[in-house]
Design goal:
Blueprint: H1 3-21, E1 28-35, E2 41-47, H2 54-63, H3 65-68, E3 72-76, H4 87-92, E4 97-106, E5 109-119, E6 123-128, E7 133-137, E8 141-146
Parallel strand pairs: 2-3
Antiparallel strand pairs: 1-2, 4-5, 4-8, 5-6, 6-7
Length: 158
């Protein structure tokens, strides 16, 4: 993902967050995906303590009337394989299996899967599925998300 796309995504997140703040102070704009050109579709992923339901998605959509004039807007939960964009997102996912794709290859590799064991203000650390510790700076991460795991009974593994 290029620098312009990352900057546009961050700008959209900040703008949407500011718009929603007064009406929905407990809602976090987790991420946005912009698809298409002029009449683009914008998917906004939100979360809040206690989770996201259809009523919240509908209310947030209606609160974004100005944005809906230029985009087809969808509001959704980040889902079980929630995206990881900020240090705070990574901190909340400590102990989880994660997928991380770097913007540029490191030692000939750009995709990592493993258990997230640390996240500070500069980088994340994970134990790779194939073994070994990997440290990746946030500015090198193009995409990351939690890998949802089920236990043998079909429930979420804690």
């Amino acid at each position: 993902m290029d620098t312009d796309t990352l900057a546009r995504r961050q700008q959209l997140i900040q703008s949407i967050t500011a718009t929603l703040l007064g009406r929905f102070p407990d809602v976090e704009v987790v991420d946005v995906d912009l698809h298409g050109g002029r009449s683009a579709r914008l998917t906004i992923y939100v979360d809040r303590p206690g989770g996201v339901d259809l009523a919240l998605c509908e209310a947030v959509t209606k609160a974004l009337d100005e944005l809906r004039e230029t985009h087809a807007v969808e509001v959704s939960s980040p889902g079980l394989d929630r995206p990881l964009r900020t240090p705070h997102h990574f901190e909340r996912a400590l102990g989880s299996r994660v997928f991380v794709k770097t913007a540029a290859p490191r030692d000939g590799r750009s995709v990592y899967r493993g258990r997230l064991v640390a996240a500070d203000h500069d980088q994340v650390s994970l134990v790779a599925d194939e073994g070994g510790d990997v440290r990746i700076r946030y500015d090198m991460i193009a995409k990351a998300h939690v890998i949802f795991e089920f236990d043998d009974n079909g429930g979420h593994r804690e």
